[in-house]
## 1
Amino acid sequence: MGKRYFCDYCDKSFPDNAQNRKKHMSGIQHQKKVKTHYFNYKDPEEILAEETSKKPCRTFGQNGHCEFHPICKFSHLTPQWEKQLRREIEIKHQKAEARRLEKEQVRTAPAGEPTLEGWMSRKDKLSEKKENKESTMESGSIFHLPKELQNLGDLPPSMIPPTLQDLVKAQDVDWG
């Protein structure tokens, strides 16, 4: 069995050669499915602009449907669909304007004036962190036991937190 071509749009496979592929790609069913696929990703503004620039489809106007709808060169814009598209466009513009105003407010908002109390609290926090690091280095223990286990006397070796010296010694050990 030779190579087969699979069309993702149509969910069909057929023997892969230039003639078969060309025949499939030029078929109405394939063109409808490709057009429908890409239509789902179009912007409402783009759809409205395209549909209003086309002449109305007579078949769609008389019967309410057109067998060529996705690939028809005429417009299938109904008043309801036009109203829906205009509403979607307006919502999109409102969201964009809200985002723009929000960004503008962030840029133009004056930064809070630094206060002495704020500066002192940040300084205290930094000095506490520095003291904690220094005390950890002095005690030689990086790890701490939970409060519940600190009062117990004889802990198994696996529960005793390692000291800094233990970790330095362990660098020479090959755990391999």
## 2
Amino acid sequence: MATFEIRKFQEDDVEAVRDIFALGMSELVPSSFSHILKQPLTQMVLMCTFCALLTSSKSFLLPILALTFLLASCRQILTYMINRTTESALKSDLSDITETYLKQKDSCFWVAESEGRVVGSVACIPNEDMPECLELMRMSVHPSHRGMGIAKALCRTVAEFTRDRGYAAVHLHTSMVATNAQKLYEHYGFEKIKEAVAPGFLAKITNFTVIEYKLHLQRG
């Protein structure tokens, strides 16, 4: 198994970090689409559309084509929304990582490197709403290097940095469809403190929630 090391971000890492982040965001599309399909409102709309068209056309072809079009449109809209979120991050903090994280007080950005290649990243900044916490952000590991303990090592790096600077806890947000991330955080010791519907009309009608976690640190 390949070895890895965790180190601070360098300017030469920027393209790899952005690519890994974008890839991780794109992986949310299938799980988010599956979540939408499981919602009672979605199933009711699809069933009513199918029955109405079947009754009016007396043919199975038209309702099947209509449902296919609806599902394809829904996935396209979802992909567009996730892409917009990705682009927003790439144009904000990930456009100048050094300025956003490395030059600010109690902030940092790390990468995981394996065999000369950047395969993961994580960052933290002060949490404006919780002065006792640092906020864990931009956790990403390339699919080819998952299962090696990289994400756990990145979590540990943030926790140690947070403790060393005198903060009491690490705080983070993740989505309900990021189930692997939830398992990682809970296994590491994070406690779920809140789950709420994400802002936006589509999130509300599909019951898409954001989960908050907190890791309480022991002084030592």
